[in-house]
C-alpha cells in the first residue's frame, strides 16, 4: 500500500473525500482550523492545508481496490501522475502531516492578532488606525484608537476592520 495524490475540482476537496470514502478507499485531507469572516461574524472553519489536493492510499497487488473508479468520482479531477505513473507520496510525510494537524487543532489561525495594526473601514471611526485588542464573541472586536491625544477602546463589527501592511 502506498499513498498517492488526488487533484480535486475547485473547492470540492471534501466532496471528493466523502465520495472516495463511501467507495471504500482510505483517504486523508489535511486541514487546519482558521478564523474567517462570514456574514459579518468571525467563525472557526477547517480549511484544507493544500487546496484541491487530498491523499489516497492504494495497493498495487491483485487484491487491491481498482484505480479506475477514482477519476470518475464526483469531486475528483484526476490522480496526480508524472508521465504514465501515479506519483507516490512517502508514508513518513503523510504521518508527519497527520501529527502536525493534531498539534495545530488546538491553535487556530487567528483573523487578527492582539497588538496588530488595523484600520477601521466603515462607520463613525472610518479611516482611523488603531491597535487590535481582542475579539468579543463572534460579532465584535475591540480596537484601541487615539482620540484627542488619549487612548480610547472602541468595539466594532469585524467586517469594519482591515489589517494594515
Low-confidence stretches: none
The level of helicity is: 10-25%
Provide the succession of SSEs: EHEEEEHEEEEHEEEEE
Structural class: alpha+beta
The shape, in one word, is elongated
CATH fold field value of the largest domain: Alpha-Beta Plaits
- CATH homologous superfamily of the largest domain? NusG, N-terminal domain
Number of strands: 14
Structural Rg: 22 Å
Question: Main β-sheet: number of strands, strand sense, barrel status?
Answer: 5 strands, antiparallel
CATH hierarchy class name of the largest domain? Alpha Beta
Corresponding CATH architecture of the largest domain: 2-Layer Sandwich
Question: How would you characterize this protein structure?
Answer:
- With 165 residues, the protein is an alpha+beta fold.
- It has two domains: 2-104, 2-Layer Sandwich (Alpha-Beta Plaits); 117-163, SH3 type barrels.
- It has helices at residues 13-22, 68-71, 91-104; strands spanning 2-8, 26-28, 31-38, 41-48, 53-58, 76-79, 81-82, 85-86, 88-89, 117-120, 129-136, 140-147, 150-156, 161-163.
- Strands 1, 2, 5, 6 and 9 form a five-stranded antiparallel beta sheet that branches. Strands 13-12-11-10-14 form a five-stranded antiparallel beta sheet, with no helix packed on it.
- A hairpin with a 2-residue loop joins strand 3 and strand 4.
- The longest helix has 14 residues, at 91-104.
- The N and C termini lie far apart (47 Å).
- The mean pLDDT is 86.
Amino acid at each position: 500500500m502506498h499513498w498517492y495524490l488526488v487533484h480535486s475540482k475547485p473547492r470540492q476537496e471534501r466532496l471528493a473525500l466523502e465520495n472516495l470514502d463511501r467507495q471504500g478507499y482510505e483517504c486523508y485531507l489535511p486541514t487546519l482550523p482558521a478564523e474567517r469572516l462570514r456574514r459579518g461574524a468571525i467563525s472557526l472553519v477547517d480549511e484544507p492545508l493544500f487546496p484541491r489536493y487530498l491523499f489516497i492510499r492504494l495497493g498495487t497487488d491483485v487484491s487491491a481496490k481498482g484505480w479506475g473508479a477514482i477519476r470518475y468520482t464526483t469531486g475528483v479531477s484526476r490522480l496526480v501522475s508524472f508521465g504514465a505513473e501515479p506519483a507516490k507520496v512517502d508514508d513518513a510525510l503523510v504521518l508527519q502531516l497527520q501529527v502536525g494537524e493534531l498539534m495545530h487543532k488546538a491553535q487556530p489561525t487567528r483573523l487578527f492578532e492582539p497588538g496588530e495594526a488595523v484600520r477601521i473601514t466603515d462607520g463613525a471611526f472610518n479611516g482611523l488606525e488603531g491597535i487590535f485588542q481582542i475579539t468579543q464573541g463572534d460579532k465584535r472586536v475591540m480596537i484601541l484608537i487615539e482620540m484627542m491625544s488619549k487612548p480610547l477602546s472602541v468595539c466594532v463589527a469585524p467586517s469594519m476592520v482591515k489589517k494594515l501592511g
